[in-house]
Amino acid sequence: PRICVVGSGPAGFYTAQHILKHHGGAQVDIYEKLPVPFGLVRFGVAPDHPEVKNVINTFTQTARSERCAYYGNVTVGRDVMVAELQQAYHAVVLSYGAEDNRVLGIPGENLSGVYSARAFVGWYNGLPENRDLKPDLSCETAVILGHGNVALDIARILLSPLHLLRKTDITDCSLAALACSKVKRVWLVGRRGPLQVAFTIKELREMINLPGTRPVLNPADFTGLENAVKDAPRPRKRLTELMIKTALEKPAEAQGVQAAAPQEWGLKFQRSPEEVLPTADGTRARGIRVALTHLEVRGSVGTGTALAGLAMEQDAMQPLGISPKTALTRTGSQEGPQPHAGLSLAAPCACAGLYCSGWVKRGPTGVIITTMNDSFDTAQSVLEDLQVGTLDVATSREGFGAVKSILCSRGVRPVSFSDWEKIDAAEVARGKAAGKPREKIVDPQEMLRVIGH
Ligand code: FAD
Questions:
Q1: Is 319 a pocket residue for ligand 1 (Cβ < 6 Å)?
Q2: Is 269 domain-assigned?
Q3: Does 118 score more than 70 pLDDT?
Q4: Which of 11, 115, 214, 336 is the most buried (most CB within 10 A)?
Q5: Beta strand pairing status for 141-145 and 310-313?
Q6: What is the distance between the alpha carbons of residues 7 and 21, in angstroms, rounded to a whole number?
């Protein structure tokens, strides 16, 4: 059977891995819109968490399998349609992640100085579409909306000493911008309370111990919580206890360096964003007005204002909205290369052979392990459908042979995995000079130049 996977993030690679491992005759082709693979492992995971990126070694092994092929620089829905892939393959698995398209729906959110967390992360991680974000870091206070690990990642990058970041694969241009940053205070604002925070203890501890920065937690926010978490599951209990300990610690008890730290960060609970306030000339964000919320009673009981020049909306991501039983189509004519009109949802799919895995399926929640398990499930469905004959493999399919002609007629030249390995080597070489693991190439045209396209 010829199977096609759309997207080369963890979902795409884990789906491919499982199918290849459990079906000795399957050929899996992975299509990716960027020249470079690995999705959010490259463009989401924080640069100072290199150990998380070790999964790339497993993905590389999968890609090097002789029954697996990688075709980068191919945007499905623009360069080739899902329907065309379905004709070329026995099964198509959609693993193209979640788009950044959620809005807060509050006045002022489009002001300059307000960024989606995804764009900000994409900027410091070298995601081509965000490379020109140029966030304004000339203010002293930043507000991040959200209490998850991504919010902590951003706070940590904003406040980390430069000498620590310099050893990571953070892009040169973001390092230069951070070197001029005036941000010295970061508030993480959440709609709910301390018992509902979504970050994990490792990331919290890292933030608490960040050199040159001290945590500012209000002890009153934690009153009575020790009792409340007595019987809670262990991870929640430990996380809450660490917040309580940090909140109650007097500066003198904190480590010497920490007490005198010039920078600070803190958690603000039960605050719902109401409005981003503009500067007098109306050109950029100057602060954010939040409503205090009760957890039991929905609605606000008052408002307060935080002054900040930089605001970030975490959770600003949504899946393009696909479920296993839905098909992707592209709006407009399907002839010839065209600007990407976006993939949109169509009516429930009548045909067998279309699957999805990862954030496409579940939305933007969960870590790489969750995505792995989910992708193994999807791969298992494909294998079972092959076994019981739901997927008809009696008719042979041409696979990439058919897609190659389509791409060629549209002037699209795919990037192979060995091409990627050349880009990889070029990045590592550039990084070496600066003592970094790699210097990412952020311009797709330059990536293509490196491989002689
Ligand atoms: P993605 O990783 O987004 O991959 C989707 C791929 O599809 C991308 O390569 C994309 O370019 C491609 N694509 C999109 N559209 C098309 C198209 N039309 N045609 C072809 N290809 C397409 N998890 C952890 O375990 N540890 C962490 O430290 C961690 N940090 C994170 C930090 C951030 C900022 C974010 C957002 C997530 C983080 N995660 C982390 C979660 C983890 O990244 C996700 O669980 C995982 O990446 C989801 O995998 P996916 O393959 O579904 O999506």
A1: no
A2: yes
A3: yes
A4: 11
A5: parallel
A6: 19
* Helix H or strand E segment including 289: strand 285-293
For 318-350, b/e burial (b = at least 16 CB within 10 A) is ebbebeeebbbbbeeeeeeeeeeeebeeeeebe
Q: Is the CB of 52 under 6 A from ligand 1?
A: yes
C-alpha 225 – ligand 1 centre gap (Å): 35
Question: Cα(151) to centroid of ligand 1, in Å?
Answer: 16
Global pTM reads 0.89
Model confidence band, residue 315 (pLDDT cutoffs 50, 70, 90): very low
User: Is residue 233 within 8 Å of residue 254, measured between CB atoms?
Assistant: no
Which of 329, 197, 187, 206 lies closest to 265 in space, CA to CA?
187
The CATH number given to whatever domain includes residue 287 is 3.50.50.60
CB 274 within 8 A of CB 290: yes
Domain boundary among 313, 340, 355: 313
Q: Report how far ligand 1's centroid is from the alpha carbon of 10 (Å).
A: 7
Q: Answer whether 12 contacts ligand 1 (Cβ < 6 A).
A: yes
Residue 442 belongs to some domain of the structure: no
Q: Is the pLDDT of residue 336 over 50?
A: no
> Alpha carbon of 416 to those of 84, 117, 125, 251, 352: distances in Å?
20, 31, 22, 55, 29
Do 219 and 247 form a contact (C-beta atoms < 8 A)? yes
Q: Determine how many CB atoms are found less than 10 A away from the CB of residue 61.
A: 12
* Top-confidence residue, 306 or 227: 227
Residues in the chain: 453
Hey, CA dihedral for 419, 169, 148, 144, is it positive or negative?
negative
> In terms of residue numbers, what domain contains 228?
114-313
Q: Please give the structure tokens belonging to residue 332.
A: 């407009």
Judge if 161 and 294 occupy the same domain.
yes
DSSP 129: G
- Residue whose Cα lies nearest atom 9 of ligand 1: it is 39
Residue 135 has pLDDT above 80, yes or no: yes
**Residue 376 and residue 290 share a domain:** no
Nearest CA to ligand 1 atom 28: 45
Q: How far is the CA of 413 from the centre of ligand 1 (A)?
A: 24
